[in-house]
Amino acid sequence: MPAPVRIVLIGAGRAGRVHANSLVNHVAKGALVGLVDSVPGALEETGAMFGVDARFTSLEEALYKLDFDAVVITTPTFTHKALAVMAMDGGKHVFSEKPMALSLDECDAIIQASERNGVLLQLGFMRRFSPEFAAAAERINAGEIGQPMMVKSLTHGPGLPPAWARDLKTSNGMLAEVNSHDWDCTRWLMGSNPERVYVEVANFKGAARGVDTPNFYDNVLVNIRFENGGLGSISGICPCDYGYDARVEIVGDRGVMQIGEMQGLPVVVCTNRDQGLITPIYRTWPERFAWGYIHEMEHFVESIQTGTPPKVGGVDGRWAVAGVLAGTKSFLEERPVRLREILEAVV
Amino acid sequence: MPAPVRIVLIGAGRAGRVHANSLVNHVAKGALVGLVDSVPGALEETGAMFGVDARFTSLEEALYKLDFDAVVITTPTFTHKALAVMAMDGGKHVFSEKPMALSLDECDAIIQASERNGVLLQLGFMRRFSPEFAAAAERINAGEIGQPMMVKSLTHGPGLPPAWARDLKTSNGMLAEVNSHDWDCTRWLMGSNPERVYVEVANFKGAARGVDTPNFYDNVLVNIRFENGGLGSISGICPCDYGYDARVEIVGDRGVMQIGEMQGLPVVVCTNRDQGLITPIYRTWPERFAWGYIHEMEHFVESIQTGTPPKVGGVDGRWAVAGVLAGTKSFLEERPVRLREILEAVV
Amino acid sequence: MPAPVRIVLIGAGRAGRVHANSLVNHVAKGALVGLVDSVPGALEETGAMFGVDARFTSLEEALYKLDFDAVVITTPTFTHKALAVMAMDGGKHVFSEKPMALSLDECDAIIQASERNGVLLQLGFMRRFSPEFAAAAERINAGEIGQPMMVKSLTHGPGLPPAWARDLKTSNGMLAEVNSHDWDCTRWLMGSNPERVYVEVANFKGAARGVDTPNFYDNVLVNIRFENGGLGSISGICPCDYGYDARVEIVGDRGVMQIGEMQGLPVVVCTNRDQGLITPIYRTWPERFAWGYIHEMEHFVESIQTGTPPKVGGVDGRWAVAGVLAGTKSFLEERPVRLREILEAVV
Amino acid sequence: MPAPVRIVLIGAGRAGRVHANSLVNHVAKGALVGLVDSVPGALEETGAMFGVDARFTSLEEALYKLDFDAVVITTPTFTHKALAVMAMDGGKHVFSEKPMALSLDECDAIIQASERNGVLLQLGFMRRFSPEFAAAAERINAGEIGQPMMVKSLTHGPGLPPAWARDLKTSNGMLAEVNSHDWDCTRWLMGSNPERVYVEVANFKGAARGVDTPNFYDNVLVNIRFENGGLGSISGICPCDYGYDARVEIVGDRGVMQIGEMQGLPVVVCTNRDQGLITPIYRTWPERFAWGYIHEMEHFVESIQTGTPPKVGGVDGRWAVAGVLAGTKSFLEERPVRLREILEAVV
């Protein structure tokens, strides 16, 4: 058996720990050999939690001091481009969390660095590796529901995102931070690129939670026309409070398919006939996509071991960013926006 | 169109009102023309509720004063035989609630009266007319799951039965009053008669609810061997408090089938991610079998109009009583009891 | 008990038979006393089916020859205004199928005729009377999920609509003929009027089915902003072939609610582990809304008997038409359309 | 972090590979260091599959040549006692697949070896570690459904067991090989030991599959009375062909709980409205209990690392064997059998 892929995790926060858990406990072909975080507390805590002694406050330091093969980037979006390019220029393969970056220019810089250095790039669209989504895509590709005509995808997250993730200046807001998965999976399952989008937003909870970020919204509804004539819908709500909800419905010219469900563990209880049956709901995204996170990391290390491009890479990440930018322009200017406007604006 | 079948309802209580509602609101071919109940209050109240002015305190009086075609009997079990025979000897068709009677002798008296007078007899096994059970039976008969091998049926009812219905002297206890439907539908779906039964009972709630009836039980579990070699299970819990629960699972040599579900209206709500998804449960039997009660009454009046024997009659009611008697003997004597012992004991 | 409300049914086609069935078999307070259809064959067939001997080829004739209280209109949309106004001017209460009419002017003419003649007007939005929708609305009104923020409603119908119903000249296409229910129930459940809509359409099946109607579409996706700031989505697919699918999801600031489901009868079967579990799907709208059709007719006759305005009337029908007109303008002009544009254009 | 627990797997067949997969890919605290199987082909194939070079044709050889901490035994039941005692006498901790052994004498020999050598013993009742069962048990213990009154557990397996596993001489038949999990989990969830059992069996498929083993049965239905007065039911069907089905229902004096479901991946499809909705079913036990197998192995290595007795050990395994023996006696002698008869018969 080949030696495990040596991975440095950049970002010791919540998403970082999910990937650390995968690498330490579930992906035998990968080894978590180092940890980078500029916040010492998180660095020490996460390092101790997963038994990783090689801890660094910067990627530069890790590149200088440690021998490794690849990085997993889980830091805030505005840092992705710099970190990815630095790692790639250092010869490391890159797994980057979504959103890929803030702009198409940044996306292009990452893609070019990947090509320039001959290193692999995988985006953190774990839905593609979640067993039910993977099985669904395979069945759609096999023609089971015919030509996809309409796809609807939703991500509703329980809690208020951190300040940087709701400010259009430091992220691209909820459409990016929460709904990147929907941008990716609608395009993936429809088998076509978005051509035109229209977006409505609403802000119901911001004021009560002390959010005064300009253009903040906690509800978003996206209408998509795809290049193949198909239609798409994305909805985002964050904070929705009621759970972590990620589901897709797709109708083809031969049938309908529902992917995912709200129900968590199959335990149904009734103790009061006036209340009814109670079943757990998924509370968080690590619960909901437990296998998806494991399988995407397996795929990353296996891609490195075999030198094969990952199934989901820079082009996919870039399309999701393009959708976000078009969608944001749409609700700011209150009109449908063609993707062409966004794609042609790249320097 | 033929004139509606004129029906007198005997028993103005809860079950009576369910049938009155069917006849008045949903079965155009039937007309509720009279009401009999020995309790004046119930008689007046139910009569007013359904606009029935012809009210009687005895069946004799109704037979003497009113012109009608058939009776629906919903009084306590120990009255069934006398009422049914009297109605039949008066030339009336009979729809009798379950259990048919207290003993096989009583069942035989009813069956003989039906034959003697050339009138029809239908038993109130409404499951057979509930759309999902009817569809299931049709599919089983068409061979969809192959030869039935094992059938499990449960009825769990929310509230404590009335005193007469839990006393082995005036009814045959829960096995009869609650689980008659299971005795009937296991035999019906298995397509074979029970050959041997073994029963265990338990009493968990009686004491706290002031029940000191001898041999009272609120939990029962029946093991059945059918004549065709198939196996069956019946469970009864009453009071179960949590709702009205009536479900069947059947496995054939080609597949499995589940019939019925606990969920009532399809409304799923989550307002607290620590609690989970909430869906209504069926609270009562009139809710659960709303269409079954309508369709069985339609079948009764159509059988009368066309002179055709109802799909479920005296023989079916008698087998359910035989099962109850064998089951009761089993738990009292703590041994498996063959149906033959019961059937051969008939005078 | 008051005498049954005497009703003449106008339109002896499929929808007509659904209401005839309700009146004849399930709504004791209503009597179907006459039938009007300009197509003799349908008139005779439906008349015979429900035992209605008073049959007319025009409403004029019925008004002239028969004594009755109300009409139920189930003819094509382009006839609604003339028939409703004629019936009302003849002093009859009107139950009108959806869509109410082709234009707001027509809607206004109907509303005015209702007021002028002091007769009642009910629209055929049966979802409001379907038990799960009624229960859901009550729970939303009671605050269970808090302030509604986002509502999604879909209607996917199995078969190709008739020619008149897909031509923008004689109906208003699918948005009206199929999705009227969604226009009504999103507004109803959100508790607010639509303010702005954006619509994308697609045509995937038309060509293969020989449809060359200009502007024909078989997929539609509507994005709505409501006056209260809430968001809405409507999707329509017709023909979808896979069944009759009508579901709603609504998220409030305190929780989520799903109303309706695809599953028909609760019978789950597995006969092949490579295929999986199979459950019936609703095949048609009369199946799906069996109780809704009964309860809306009960409501109509009870409203007449008590002289109370029905819960869903002309204003509701008019808003649905306004939504349809705004939506149609949106996809034709490829831009968001404010309802104000439509409402202010009324003569 | 402590060094991983070094484990030798005995039995390179299907169950062995499930545990090998857990140890190699998902249980970082455990290391699969050696493999034992008397069949050279299986040994080489499984060894290659998991990268285990230390391969032995007997446990003796492994004990002699390799340094390790514990064994996982997945060989046929009739070998368990000898292997477990040998491993324990060699100072190794033991994880044993179910059934624990063929007789209570054998169980006692294993328990005594464990005590004599101060080594740990865990039984392979993976349901206890499957997230939904673990959560359910915790909630029952917390009193959510009150005092358990009735528990029903089923295991239906798709394929015909191997010859040794259906012969009462070399195993204890289906009640042991398939339903051990039900014997354990009914006792566990009821919180009480079985007191009396009654069993009916049937043979529907044996002949067609060429099985002429004496007393072969492919359907079994067990009725249990527990020491605390509660009732239990176990059903087994093997081969059931339709999938791998493992579900439990339990009713307490305050409510009902369903644990597990047939549905596998949440992907619902409809492509034909006459057929209906299709959802995957669990096809095999490794799929159904994917997390249960991982978590039970985690528990085993953590128990060894911390020197704590596993949550499920020799006493639990012995009770399951006692139930099997009583149940087998019951159907052979066609009478209820008290556990006391079995327990007191031990030499």
Overview of this structure, please?
The structure is a homotetramer of 347-residue chains. The longest helix of chain A is centred in the C-terminal third of the chain and has 20 residues, at 314-333. Chain A starts with a strand and ends with a helix. The first copy, chain A, has 13 helices and 15 strands. The first copy, chain A, is an alpha/beta fold and 347 residues long. In chain A, α4 (80-89) packs parallel to α5 (104-117). The A-C interface holds A 147, 149-150, 152, 156, 196, 198-205, 218-225, 229-233, 235, 237, 240-243, 245, 251, 253-256, 262, 334-336 and C 147, 149-150, 152, 156, 196, 198-205, 218-225, 229-233, 235, 237, 240-243, 245, 251, 253-256, 262, 334-336. β13 of chain B pairs antiparallel with β12 (255-259) of chain C, so a sheet runs across the interface.
For the structure shown, list the relevant keywords.
homotetramer, 347 residues, alpha/beta
Q: Look at the helices and sheets of chain A and give the structural class.
A: alpha/beta
Question: Shape of chain A, please?
Answer: globular
Largest interface: A-C, 43 and 43 residues
Q: Which bin fits the share of residues in helices of chain A?
A: 25-40%
With strands numbered from the N-terminus, the spatial order across the biggest sheet of chain A is 12-11-7-10-9-8-15
Rg measurement of chain A, Å: 20 Å
Sheet with most strands of chain A: 7 strands, mixed
Number of helices of chain A: 13
Quaternary structure: homotetramer
Distance linking N and C termini of chain A: 46 Å
**Count the strands of chain A?**
15
- In round numbers, the mean pLDDT of chain A is 97
Name the poorly predicted regions of chain A: none
- Beta-strand portion of chain A reads 15-25%
